[in-house]
Amino acid sequence: MNAEIIAIGSELLTPSRQDTNSLFLTEKLNQLGVEVVFKTVVGDNRRHLVSAARAAVSRADILIFMGGLGPTEDDLTREAVAEALDLELHRDPELLAKLEQRFATRKMTMSPNNEKQADILAGATALPNANGTAPGQWLSGKYDGKEKIIMLLPGPPHELKALFEEQCLDRLRARVPPQFIATRVLKVAMMPESQCDARVAPIYKCYPDVQTTILAGAGEIQLHLRGHAESLETAQQRVEELAGKIEDELDDFVFSRNGESLEQIVSYFLQMRNLNLAVAESCTGGMLAERITSISGSSRYFLGGAIVYSNELKTQFAGVPPELIAKHGAVSREVAVALAEGVRERCQANLGLAVTGIAGPTGGTPDKPVGLVLHALAGEGKTEVIERNFPGDRKRIRWFATQQALDMVRRRLM
Amino acid sequence: MNAEIIAIGSELLTPSRQDTNSLFLTEKLNQLGVEVVFKTVVGDNRRHLVSAARAAVSRADILIFMGGLGPTEDDLTREAVAEALDLELHRDPELLAKLEQRFATRKMTMSPNNEKQADILAGATALPNANGTAPGQWLSGKYDGKEKIIMLLPGPPHELKALFEEQCLDRLRARVPPQFIATRVLKVAMMPESQCDARVAPIYKCYPDVQTTILAGAGEIQLHLRGHAESLETAQQRVEELAGKIEDELDDFVFSRNGESLEQIVSYFLQMRNLNLAVAESCTGGMLAERITSISGSSRYFLGGAIVYSNELKTQFAGVPPELIAKHGAVSREVAVALAEGVRERCQANLGLAVTGIAGPTGGTPDKPVGLVLHALAGEGKTEVIERNFPGDRKRIRWFATQQALDMVRRRLM
């Protein structure tokens, strides 16, 4: 079975607000084996709401409407769903009494606009809302010629979550055929997306029962695998089998098989090998250290380092000879190596990691264009350098550079 | 005119990912007077995509499809839109040549799956994508019996943003009836949201024609003002009048009246005063320097500094006496001052800025709980310290600390 989630509210169509309830609902639905196939956001406009409801009923088995159940003029969900499904809406005397009682308990007078919160769709069950005035509604039956489950839930997240967990989950579980979903996220470092897909597509195509989604970012590709089956064992077995084959194909480009970030993996490796690290950053300006220290407990393996934005500080903090900078330029293999070795020595670290490059948008030359970045890793007896030309804007080039630098540490310790 | 935004990608229907491009697009469309009336999220499934495209064409004037333009098997947007609108799809030789050239320039072989990125809808104009392989498409004409504008844009945010701004905005502006909207974004540093709202609500309530939205983040509140009127002058005059009154009320807590970031404002002030800056970061671990260097041209006023995660490096890079650390602890006013003064001296900077604190989740004590952060700013003849207890998780505490540190520089130079 599949579901569509319809979030209602004009504020959700502004540049500054976003529906987040659907993330919670998606997680709960997925756990029951229900897949969310559409999410729709629609404003407080009856015609638009009816259109959204009609589209949803034509294409999903489970429809969850969120919001628009309050007492105001622009709360129109009940009316719109009634119109779209061609159902009567009647005022429930019991619900009305409860509403009046709720106001009386709080010693407030109930204004007449509140009464419409007692309106209920023909055939629906009211779902009491412990945290607000608007009750939810549960409806199941044949609509548009097919069996459908329809829920109307309040929009405020704390009301929606409590109501869904307490009153919808069990009802859903009883109606949904038992299904099991297994998932896995593989992450791949520093490989072009098309190359990655060309290598893995022939593999995942043999697993039509496992949905494979490829997400590409700067220097990182994520492969999300998601398998359905009639038992958890089968679902897991299929996903693990596919994951294993993809890992065999991509080999050491795969850095994570449980969704961990690259900085988390570097953290594991450094701790496992009982090594520590220091950095010298020019063009990344602190981003590399920020990523490393975003991990709680990073003080166990990260000493710190230097942000050597000016040439003077390259000398002051990492001992790079001014003549070397004068001869080769600050963005050069020679200076990258000297930075890595220098910061390693100054910090008495096991590993020294350095980045120098041209993040742009200004500062590029024909010889040394924007996007040129040198990465160096110094360790016991050996310093490696990697030169790259990264595409994109300043932010993206800097991110790419930190990704490449972290990947050098990972590969060294693997 | 109104618009529907359709975000495509199965990953956007999982509990862990959300479309954010639509927020950017909504802002740009609103500025043209175009309202977003529906947002739809749909997975990489041809039948679902066709259904979403059909629903959209039946109810909105402008359709923006985002994502699903890449080279992989599950990139199906072109095919689905062609099917929904009953249009031919043909391979464009010129686009194909450009694709091949792009790969050749990077000395990479183009795998055959890339070719479909040269497929174009009958009647559409290809929109070159400077940041990726997949070009966008622009289509306008009569569909479903009405004039429609249809855009196919790539999903990665940096590609979408650049492509939309450079190639869609002018085309849209030429087609949309002129409307007059004035906006202003005021940004406020280091003030609690409830206090801010209590002070400004009585003011903005007197301007019902200006929509005021308050967004609160860590150490920053944004007030978005948006006025519609029949002439640009009236809209601007109302927005400016309200903005002026809010600024009078909040005084020097307002750091920006044109939407600039705090690091941008600090950049202006440092350049205006012809001063430079160095930093010493403990708990923020590079985040402060990263924010400063995110501004292009920051090398004019930022020298660099030290990430002094370990106590040894506090001594090595900022000359903090080990006895001082032993006596007061690394998270103390005394060490914060010594770090700021020490890094200022070592870097020969006009200003030395330091942060030391407990970002958590571990490392707190009853005396020095998680969230305690000391910020110090050393300059000619004077060093200031600010002690704060920030709420939230590691990420939020670190962000708060960088915000407070930057705000100290702003206030010193104001």
Features:
homodimer; 17 strands; 414 residues; 27% strand; 40% helix; alpha/beta
Folded structure, characterized:
Two copies of one chain form a homodimer. Chain A is of the alpha/beta class. In chain A, 40% of the residues lie in helices and 27% in strands. Chain A has helices at 21-31, 46-59, 77-85, 93-105, 157-175, 193-204, 232-250, 262-273, 287-293, 311-318, 322-328, 333-347, 394-413, and strands at residues 2-8, 35-42, 62-66, 89-91, 119-121, 125-127, 136-143, 146-153, 180-189, 210-217, 220-229, 254-256, 277-281, 302-307, 351-357, 372-379, 382-389. In chain A, the strands form four sheets. Chain A has a six-stranded mixed β-sheet with strand order 2-1-3-8-7-6, sandwiched between helices. A five-stranded mixed β-sheet of chain A has the order 14-13-15-16-17, with helices on both faces. In chain A, strand 1 (2-8), helix 1 (21-31) and strand 2 form a beta-alpha-beta unit. In chain A, helix 2 packs across helix 3 and helix 6 packs across helix 7. Chain A starts with a strand and ends with a helix. In chain A, 50% of the residues are buried. The model of chain A has no long low-confidence stretch (mean pLDDT 94). At the A-B interface, helix 1, strand 2, helix 2, helix 6 and strand 10 of A face helix 1, strand 2, helix 2, strand 13 and helix 9 of B.
Break the fold down into its secondary structure elements and pairings.
Two copies of one chain form a homodimer.
Chain A: E1 2-8, H1 21-31, E2 35-42, H2 46-59, E3 62-66, H3 77-85, E4 89-91, H4 93-105, E5 119-121, E6 125-127, E7 136-143, E8 146-153, H5 157-175, E9 180-189, H6 193-204, E10 210-217, E11 220-229, H7 232-250, E12 254-256, H8 262-273, E13 277-281, H9 287-293, E14 302-307, H10 311-318, H11 322-328, H12 333-347, E15 351-357, E16 372-379, E17 382-389, H13 394-413
